[in-house]
Amino acid sequence: MIRPALAAAAVLVALAPALPANAEPAPQSYMAERAAIQPKSADAVLARPLLRVPFSCGENWSGASRSGHSPSYYSLDFNWGSGRDDLGKPVKSSAAGTVVRSAYDAGGYGNYIEIAHGDGWRTLYAHLQNRAVAVNDRVTNSTQIGRVGDTGNVTGPHLHYEQIHNGAVVAAKFGTSTWATYPGPDTYARIRDC
Ligand SMILES: [Zn+2]
């Protein structure tokens, strides 16, 4: 006699599609994977590289935080104009660095890019329309790395943005003194390194 739990497991195995011999199983969503990593209290205030607002100079972007935002409350969702006005707007690196991820995450980030800036600091840009840089590419503090899109788990175009220290999303800070507002939204604009 098969116990119910084993019977259920057997059904799940039976329903799982057989993978071709050479296929690798799909990785778990990178967004979901990182949601479990929480910042240490010191992470928010540590010296970090000078990180610019990730857009062209002269544009005012609304950056929103919200409770339940994945993978972290400290993530920001950026919009420009209204409706789908921001679709295709250039996205720029917040600082010089090296591209460590340029990939597609169907269940979360869609097209996303992660850039390492040294000392455990990274920035991540998600839901992009396209990815203009590849892993190991060097970027400057104003390289256009892609365009605002609506890929992945979204209801409309926007840029999902994270400042990361040692794997944890931390409260965002722009330039030398502009801390992001939590809870948002607030308005942000790049004023240097255009
Ligand atoms: Zn988001």
From TrEMBL:
Q: What is this protein called?
A: M23 family metallopeptidase
Q: Which GO terms describe its molecular function?
A: metalloendopeptidase activity
What keywords sit in the KW lines? Hydrolase, Signal
- Organism, as annotated: Kribbella sandramycini
- Which residues, if any, are the signal sequence? 1-23
Query: Would the keyword Signal be found if you checked this record's keyword annotation?
Result: yes
Q: Name one Pfam family in it.
A: Peptidase_M23
Concerning InterPro entries, the annotation shows: Cell_wall_metabolism_enzyme, Dup_hybrid_motif, M23ase_b-sheet_dom
**What Gene3D superfamilies does this protein map onto?**
Glucose Permease (Domain IIA)
Instruction: Write down the PANTHER family for this protein, in alphabetical order.
Output: MUREIN HYDROLASE ACTIVATOR ENVC, PEPTIDASE-RELATED
Q: Where is the M23ase beta-sheet core domain?
A: 87-170
